[in-house]
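User: Before I run my own analysis I want an independent prediction to cross-check against. Here's the chain; please return only the structure tokens and, at the end, one sentence I can use as a sanity check.
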Amino acid sequence: MDVKLPNLGEGADSGTVVTLFVKEGDRIEKDQPVIELENEKAVATIPSTASGVITKVFVKTGDKISAGQRIISVGESGGAAAAAAEPRKEAPAKRAAAPAPVAAAETQSAPEEDESETEPSVATATQSNGEVAAAPSIRKMANDLGIDLTKVRGSAHGGRIVLADVRAYIARLIKAAEKPKAAAAPAEAKPAPERIDFSKWGEVSKKPMSSLRKVISRRMVESASTIPQVTQFDDADVTSLNELRKKYAAAYEKQGARLTMTPFVLKAVVAALKQHPIFNSSLDEAAEEIVYKEYYHIGMAVDTEAGLIVPVIRDVNKKSLLDLSKELEELARKARERRVSTEELKGGTFTISNQGGIGGAYFTPIVNKPEVAILGLGRSVLKPVVRNNAIEPRMMLPLGLSYDHRVIDGGTAARFTVDLVKALENFPENEVKL
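Assistant: Structure tokens:
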């Protein structure tokens, strides 16, 4: 039997083969890994749905495959596999022995499988429909609709045409009819990228873009070109917050968690989102509606060797600092190992990009569509700050809030930032205690 790529979930109907675990002649058991597939920034292991000897491998590393596409063929044993292969060799002869009208139908319908061939067209029904292998009801329907059945490929035994074949043929006619409409608007066509020979000016080396980098590139271009984005900057005095973190860090270590600044920011962000629900929304462009979400799923941008990955922490408002500390560490580990599932990358309502561990100060993060805002964090730095007419050394955290100006106005963004700073500067100790 054939092992095919299963449906990987909504919006995940294809992927790139990054690892192939098997080869022809291998003995494989059910649920044994066959390939690793990269899709939507995650890498998933695809298991076999059958046991036996692999008679054919249809993919290789680097291939892009879609749901329903064959990965391998499996036979019960070497002998059984060979026996199973024989009928496939005889199939052409059997088809050749079929009645001439059926063979003609198969020959004429073949170009329809390739959209680059001449587009199908409706022909006036003729007496030839009566000679095609199909039920009388199918022939009558074809005559009524003006469809020449000799142009329809039959999928039933012996090339017999069934209702599903006629429906598929009509769908291709509709698709072909829509092509001229697309061609009528050449102004919307994207110009072909210019090829530049950089080697003319010196030595170069080349490295193909990974599947992940292509996804990041496509999404960043989409967000930057469709969202009128504005970034609001501010500083938060996290001196007291840092002291709280140091005070309870050892207690959290005993519980198997590392208490960093990020769980505090998560909690403060949720507090600000509750005060300003518009930041926890999405714009439904088709319906021209703003969708307010009653849940708080925060995406955390993770820097990996392969590129940026944004796993989502769900229901942040319902979790303690200890829970968040553990989950952050686990998600970061899975992201760096490319073991984050596709589902763990979806459903975010707001995103945080924290570069504090690397360094730097202010930056303008790009909104993670379909969200409407993203918070960028730089590294906390000890700065001289005027407090009560005196200069004091204070630990200051740089903030950059980017937002979708179609949904959020500047005044609203400023108020959100002020409340976020307050939440960070006045973090309640009882939320840190274990």
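Sanity check: Residues 1-92 form a domain with the OB fold (Dihydrolipoamide Acetyltransferase, E2P) fold (CATH 2.40.50.100).
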